[in-house]
Amino acid sequence: MRFVASSALLATGLLGSAHAEGDALVDMLGPREIAVGEAMRGGATGAAAISLNPAGLPLNHELVFEGGYGYRASDQASLIGVSACDSTSAIPGCFYYDYAGSNPELGGMSMHRQTHIAGTSIGYPISPRVFVGLSAKYFHFDSDVMNEPSSSGFNWDVGTTVRLTDNVSFGVAGYNLWGAESVDFPRAAGGGFMARPFSSLAISFDARWKLANGDHSARYGGGAEWFLSGNNGQSGFPIRAGALRDSGLGTTYLSGGLGYATLKFGLDLAARKAISGTNETQFLASMRFYGPRMASSSQVE
Known about the structure:
301 residues, 4 helices, 16 strands
């Protein structure tokens, strides 16, 4: 009986820590989102709109190709994402692919999980200040972690962005609302705002709640971006900082990032460190290459 009880406790512990490092809601985020505490739902554009709020795609007018890589030391995770987004058309949209592969150690045993995601996101302005968006994705999830069955199928995200003024916007989104069920794709909802008190400064705050049975944990984050323009005004250096709290994990994170942006390309670097709850450390980098770009008062670098 003692052996059975001990085995049950071990299994419970493995389950409880199975997704301590991340899931698809986190693994798809890029360096800009991570650097500002995941707080871009009120003004997400380009690749950030794919993972946070597809309704933000019409906020700017550009053609951009992006590729990124991230590494999370706590579970030896490699995070890869590529995307192509065109918001110069009447219906802005993106195509994207994401991969996450990790090797967590649970109960002294080395496990492996991997996720492939491919999909498309579109946004549409139903008025000059109100936008809606939709993401459709196909995923394939494999895991040898106990009680994490492999799964695949389609799922959907939806979002809305409201531009309250030229410098303040608010966004809400729902994730994995319809389709195949998977432990790596929990149903969730989030919202937040972004404000630009000055043209070179953006501040934001977000919250996200899981809606799965038995798990209603929340993540609250905020951050800021200061854009230092170059001498010619055609390039600059975004400096980002943020903080994040996860109620389910009991973890607080600090994050920051640097970048370099021109009219033709952009480079972004970010790091995040848990200061309580876990020992998670994450590093990310991405490159963006631009096609045609048109000025927009709400454009976010």
